[in-house]
Amino acid sequence: RLHEEGQAQVAVTWGLDEEPLAKQFLESADIPCLRGGAPPLRDLAALFAEYDALICNDTGMLHLGAAVGTPLVAIFGPTDPERFLPIGEHNLAVKAADSRVDSVTVEQVWEALGKLPKRRPRPM
């Protein structure tokens, strides 16, 4: 949806064992995506620090994005966002009533993105 409205360039990264899942996503996304692969954590942190926003599931990458101050929307499944969402006004969680990641809707994520504070100015 962000891409359709001209507001985002989508970058896809994945963990070492997630390449088949990433390929499946990239094939079904039907939009141009930057393919970030599985960069070292230091490089990934540097990338996240440049993003205006990050959308990800409840993984270590969520916490890495929060650590570098990137506003984010975290998609939760069975884990509890009250317990695992990093603290901060620029971190929001979405979760489906049935606690399944694949039940989270685009509308839920879109609404959460709209609530994120604007990205802070970056140091030069």
Structural description of this entry:
The protein is α/β, with parallel strands linked by helices and 124 residues long. Helices cover 35% and strands 19% of the residues. The chain has 5 helices and 5 strands; from the N terminus they run βαβαβαβαβα. It has helices at residues 19-29, 41-50, 60-67, 81-84, 106-115, and strands spanning 10-13, 33-37, 54-57, 72-76, 91-95. The strands form 2 sheets. It has a 3-stranded parallel beta sheet, with helices on both faces. The chain is globular and about 30 Å long. The N and C termini lie far apart (31 Å).
How large a portion of the residues is in β-strands, by DSSP E?
A: 15-25%
Q: Nearest-angstrom radius of gyration? A: 14 Å
Oligomer: single chain
Q: What does the average pLDDT come to?
A: 87
As residue ranges, the low-confidence spans are: none
What is the 3D form?
globular
| Helical/strand content category | alpha/beta
Q: What is the β-strand count?
A: 5
| Count of DSSP H/I helices | 5
Strand order of the largest sheet: 3-4-5
Measured between the Cα atoms of the first and last residue, the distance is 31 Å
Order of helices and strands: EHEHEHEHEH
Helicity range of the residues?
Answer: 25-40%
The major pleated sheet works out as:
3 strands, parallel
